[in-house]
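User: I want to check something. If I give you two sequences, will you return the structure for each one separately, not as a complex?

Assistant: Yes, each is folded on its own. Here is the first sequence with its structure:
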Amino acid sequence: MATTISSELKLNVVLDSALVALREALLPLNSFSTVYNSVPLKGTDKIAVPFFPLATDATSDFNGTYAFNDTNAINSREITINKRKYQSLSFTSAELARQPYFNPEQLGFQKGRKLAEDILRDVLSVVTAANYGTAIHTGLASAFDSDDMITIKTALDVAKWPKTSRTMILDNAYEGALLKDAGIKNAAAVGSASAIQNGRLPQIAGFDVIGTNLIPGNSQNLVGMVALPEAILVAFSPVQPAPGVRNNLTAYESATDPETGLTIEYRSWGDPDTDTEKSVMEVNYGFAKGHEAALKRIVSA
């Protein structure tokens, strides 16, 4: 007997698969000061994003009383949720009735992945020379190796960056060059076989390395960056449809990642004139440049 999968179950599978892809592709954003708010905003379009700027105040000598002139405690900045990206789906009645090979899991994953790609490229569009200054490294992927990593580390040490929380985000070509590096491939040298067995880089020169093929060039040959969390401030929050809009929808659902709070929304409605069911999966977010001294660009030329 054939098993009929309900439309509600299919929708849940689509949304859950889209959320998995979304979270995976947006992994580089966890390196920054990012807030994933799962509760719809009410009365405001802003979210306070906390961050910890580099401490620059001089240490004081006790002189009979404590003086407080701290300008570098916990800070926060309001980020406006003004970005709204979506992936659309539409089917005619005939198409919906004649899809014996419809795979909701695959469809959701593909749509979620593409949505995440465009969001990540949008956020990283802020990484420019005007915002963060001169590049810390210039060179082609074919010449990039662990010696370059050590040179970058040394430059950051001289700049008095804290040794914790340093992240390097690299284009996959540069990540691949590091995976070929003899010193990294040698499991005995790094104490881990992850580079060979899993294609994952261990921590190198104090950096957690994240490889991605989604770094925008920004017309400046950008291929990567080293950063502290306060370099970019990012906020996500769902925006529910207004009551009148919701009354005209056939469905409104959302799925939230329990660990991060990242939320994807789904809206569906029918168009009787074209005999089409239309739906979108969308994410609402905003971002801004953070502390300009907390990010250094890596460029190819």
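And separately, the second sequence with its own structure:
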Amino acid sequence: MRATVFLLPLALLPIFANEFWLVHIFSRALILGIIALSLTFLATYLGVVSFAQATMAGIAGYVLAYFGPNTVDVGHELPFAAAIPIALLMSVLSGAVVGLIARRSQGIYAIMITLAIAVAFFYFTRQNYSFFNGWTGFSGLRSPQIGDTALRTPVVFYLLCLGVAALLLAMVSGFVRSPMGLTIQAVRDARRRVQAIGIPLTTPIVSAYAFAGFIAGSGGILNVWYQERISSFSVGLGPIVDILTISVIGGLRHPSGAFIGAVAFVLLDTFAIDFVDRERFNTLIGVTLLIIVLLAPRGLRGLWDDTVARFGNARDGGENTGKSQQST
């Protein structure tokens, strides 16, 4: 639950921030952080880096677009009460399928398999028009309206993103303490020992990917409401690399690092143009990533933990020194 606590002060942000900061900075950062959380969950508790998280989020977004209101006359509109659960279910199933395919892979092999799946889905969305509407995708996607209040209203949408992020962090915290969560961590630490005691590896691995698919799908739905459109570009190589970059910047070994990295990424993406040419943004991100990897291998969250621990040790050392002098 400690990972959820750091999000709570953000609930006061609407008192101070304007619409631009609420929607285009913090809401966007929370959405990207949710999708990156699905990656950091797998990296932290299963020990696997997946490149298919943007794909899982994209599947949820496409399903919501297909079964929701749009302006391209593709799909079958259903009430949001039905379309949202279907979208989440499909993202969970997509995660399970990815896990089933990649269940025997670790390290670079898991990365390559999930990347191949993601790239294959990207090209499939461009070529399929009956469900994905090809290159163009879907536009005019509207968020639900509760009474007279639209969820896309800046303050409401920001609080919705914040609430979903806090809920998912709490779910991750609870899930990893459950019997299945503990089994997943056992698979991470000692696959052969897990097999030796008679536990099949497929079930915990597929469960981990399916849960990650649920997390990514939640972010994918929010991203559709934020962008108000979805296309093949939403699941292309750019978003795939962005999610990995966010996770590495924040820290792959702690779930809350996904949100820290997302805030840093969005701030760079938004304001870097004031300092460097827009075409050099990827260079700036690459340099930033290189510096973090070299100076703080555990990301910004790891750097924060190390700093707090260092000051704590220094304070404890000072107190112990003072006590020893008094006793002398």
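Because they were folded independently, the notes below concern the second chain alone. The chain has 14 helices and four strands. The chain has one domain: 2-236.
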